[in-house]
Amino acid sequence: MYSLLLSLIYLSFVSLGLPDSLLGAGWPIMHSEFGVPISYMGLVTMIISGSTIVSSLFSHKVIRKFGTPIVTTVSVFLTAVALLGFSLSSAYWMLLIFAIPYGLGAGAIDAALNNYVALQYSSKHMSWLHCFWGVGTIISPFIMSNALSTSTWNSGYRNVMYVQIIIGLILLTTIPVWKINQGKEQTEISEKKIGLLDVFKIKGVPFILLGFFAYCAAESTAMGWASTYFTQVKGIDGETAAAYASLVFIGLTVGRFFAGFLMDKIGDRKMILLGTAITVVGIALLLLPIKNNVCSISGFVIIGLGYAPIYPCIIHSTPLNFGAENSGAIIGIQMAGAYLGSTFMPPLYGVLGKWIGYEMMPAYLLIFMIFMVVMTERTFKIAARTKA
Questions:
Q1: Among 74, 167, 258, 297, which is most exposed with the fewest C-beta within 10 angstroms?
Q2: How far apart are CA 230 and CA 235, in angstroms?
């Protein structure tokens, strides 16, 4: 039963990852069909992320009331509805409407399962959890690329919706499996009720929120705009660029698989520093003035490898830094901070790219990674002094 439950948790994160890379993969074609500028993807992602922020902020209360398995299952079906809406959209404004359930479903899954795994499983399982999110993000660009080659982008969204429905049905029929940890979960989530304002009073919390904001700003920009980078900077056709949208996700997934074997030995803090160093190497490859695309392709993969341990390590370190009794509320706020970065910073890159040039991506990513390291290091130092 333990292994089955862990498999269901991993499957849920595949579901979370599936929609995340679809828009970036299909947008170079979609924006032309809708007759809007390429930078308009930013508004869609802002609404998705904004809805996710709302979902994350209220996730702690919802999970306390309904439990992790119910929240996760309902959220999977909610994202399936959003994907159906995207597939049926015939005008740009329709995307903006269906972006709302798109984000609400994602935020609930993210906060619920991150806290669940942070409390009940070791660091390696947190890494592998996000590895399976990467599996979902790798699959969907290829689904979209195949749809663009054989049909339309609409069928790409529709095919991913079918996968979501299957995953949702599996979760629905296996809800009783979660009972093996039910008593423990109820004990943990009822240990301490903490208000939103109280979270910010805990020493170190504002810094980790800023660090998470910066990391997700860099991650989401690289993920969402990689395809556009190849079309606008490298002159690649839209169908090929759609497949290239998966490069960062491939690096993330492979990196998180192997990072899982290292995390328990090295620790969360050192893994964040190691990941940052690898990311800088990938950014440097994008800066090399070489005409062929080998360096750019390798650069995005290596950037993904560097990103791999950062998100799971920040989440997994939350109970250790701030106490298990506070982790549920703090992780919900962390998700909101993360999605603030995802909401506003990728669209900003789209606007700046339009006026300055999309080749500015390496510098844009580097600024946020430096800020992330400064903030997370400050958090770990404060937490160490508090516990001393």
A1: 258
A2: 6
* The pLDDT of residue 342 is above 50: yes
In 3D, which of 10, 2, 5 has the Cα closest to residue 260?
10
pTM higher than the cut 0.85:
no
What region does 267 belong to: left with phi over 0, alpha with psi -120 to 50, or beta? left
Q: How many domains does the chain have?
A: 1
Q: Does 280 have pLDDT greater than 70?
A: yes
Ramachandran area for residue 229 (φ above 0: left; ψ -120 to 50: alpha; else beta): alpha
Residue 183 binned pLDDT confidence (cut-offs 50, 70, 90): low
- Integer Cα distance of 138 and 141 in angstroms: 6
Please determine, for residue 2, whether its predicted confidence score (pLDDT) is greater than 80: no
Rounded to whole angstroms, the Cα distance separating 163 from 157 reads 10
Structural domain containing residue 238: 2-387
Q: What is the DSSP string of 301-357?
A: HHHHHHHTTHHHHHHHTHHHHH-HHHHHHHHHHHHHHHHHHHHHHHHHHHHHHHHT-
| 298, 285 contact by CB (below 8 A) | yes
130 and 78 Cβ atoms separated by less than 8 Å: no
Whether 16 and 133 have beta carbons less than 8 Å apart is answered as yes
- The enclosing domain of 155 has a CATH number of 1.20.1250.20
pLDDT in tens, 327-339: 777 887 887 888 7
The SS3 of residue 212 is: helix
Tokens 């056709």 belong to which residue? 237
The mean pLDDT value for 156-165 works out to 93
